[in-house]
UniProtKB/TrEMBL annotation:
This is MBL fold metallo-hydrolase. It comes from Ramlibacter humi. One of its GO terms (molecular function) is metal ion binding. Residues 13-193 form the Metallo-beta-lactamase domain. Residues 192-212 are annotated as: Disordered. The keyword Hydrolase applies. Pfam families: Lactamase_B (PF00753).
Length: 212
């Protein structure tokens, strides 16, 4: 069985998630944006072995600690889509702009494409490319858990910003309606910020995409 725990990190309260297999205790970390010591303490407390870093996108609050974590533990970096190359290249500038610790440069071990999968032990999560917030944003969906880790595509009652370079409102709305909604109304999503919700709830009540 897969399990996950979400730990808010950085001054932006970004939802970093640890995902692990309870049988093998193998784990992946999604969007390690910062507060690395706190995240590693959580890994130790859970008694899991961190094996992979998965990235939804490369904004500083989601990817800021990725390079250091990969270097310290010799971990592969999986994702995002290559459309976020610009944002990865700009991580040092982003860290200065937003007052984050200096971000280390990195090159993903594996870029992700729409329809790819990522594996953790015997478990498989499906990858959907969901641009709009950033060009290379991806989402990780576990049908087994009925959970989706959606980064900054969708929030409870809101959607991602599209006023950064490479953002596009229409593209984001299409990503939500064409790629998230088909995952099913009962699927619970873990957003990049704020509380969890379900796709069904957002389809009914979200003022930006409700009724779509």
């Amino acid at each position: 069985m897969l399990h996950y725990r979400t730990i808010p990190v950085t001054a932006f309260a970004q939802n970093c998630s640890l995902v692990w297999d309870d049988k093998t205790k193998r784990a992946a970390i999604i969007d390690p944006g910062g507060d690395l010591d706190e995240l590693l303490e959580e890994v130790q407390a859970l008694g899991v072995t961190l094996e992979q870093i998965w990235l939804t996108h490369a904004h500083i609050d989601h990817a800021g600690a990725t390079g250091e974590l990969a270097r310290r533990l010799q971990l592969p970096i999986v994702g995002p889509h290559q459309g976020d190359q610009y944002w990865i290249d700009a991580l040092p500038e982003q860290s200065r702009m937003f007052g984050f610790p200096q971000a280390e440069a990195f090159t993903p071990t594996r870029w992700l494409e729409d329809g790819d999968t990522v594996k953790l032990g015997a478990h498989t999560l499906h990858v959907r490319h969901c641009p709009g917030h950033t060009p290379g944003h991806v989402v990780f969906h576990s049908p087994e858990l009925q959970r989706a880790f959606v980064g900054d595509v969708l929030f409870a009652g809101s959607i991602g910003r599209t006023d950064f370079p490479g953002g596009d409102h229409g593209t984001l709305v299409r990503s939500i309606t064409e790629r998230l909604w088909p995952m099913g109304d009962d699927t619970v999503f873990i957003p990049g910020h704020g509380p969890e919700s379900s796709f069904g709830r957002e389809r009914r009540s979200n003022p930006f995409v409700g009724g779509t």
